[in-house]
Protein: Methyltransferase domain-containing protein
Organism: Streptomyces finlayi
Amino acid sequence: MTGQPDRWAELTGGQAGEEYAQRFARLAESGHDIHGEAAFCDALLKPAARVLDAGCGTGRIAIRLAELGHHCTGVDVDASMLAVARRDAPSQEWLLGDLARLDTLGPEPDFDLALAAGNVIPLLAPGTESGVVRQLAAVLRSGGLLVTGMGLDAAHLPLSEPPVTLTEFDEWCTEAGLTLRQRYATWSGDPYDADGGYAVSVHSRTAM
């Protein structure tokens, strides 16, 4: 750990839960599909899979995946976001915790899929990114999937410049025993463009 706050906390002050939830509620009311990430993950999973939503925020994706029949655990460091998730889905498992220290999940977690959507990786505390990737890889069963979505330029990030490149991210994944399986430009599965500003990546944990 670096001792530095994560970039998300610097942007929001840890008080963004209600505002974030209202933003997606407005999108849903206007007819936008707000479940693209959940649909993407559901298509990769067998029924009743175990999913870790890492950086789950207000629980939008984990709640939808639970509605689709999966067993979801959400983890986030932002208490204001988790407060919304716990209010909206009190029967689901929501854990307050740092993604660089996932010991709250127990001694032998065994997830089919770990999800880090919503620019989770670029918004981590500087210097912790590779460690978080290792932690996420470690909670996966053999053959389990790490699914990530991240902006690659300022237009797709709440930052003036991207703090993480795909090359760096793929290197961290390789070091953690993960292999790139698929990469797309959107959660709808559009083909990845190396000149584009967003990447949805699917890595798998090497079979043990």
Remarks:
- The longest strand covers residues 140-151.
- DSSP finds seven helices and seven strands in the chain.
- Residues 1-5 have pLDDT under 50 and may be disordered.
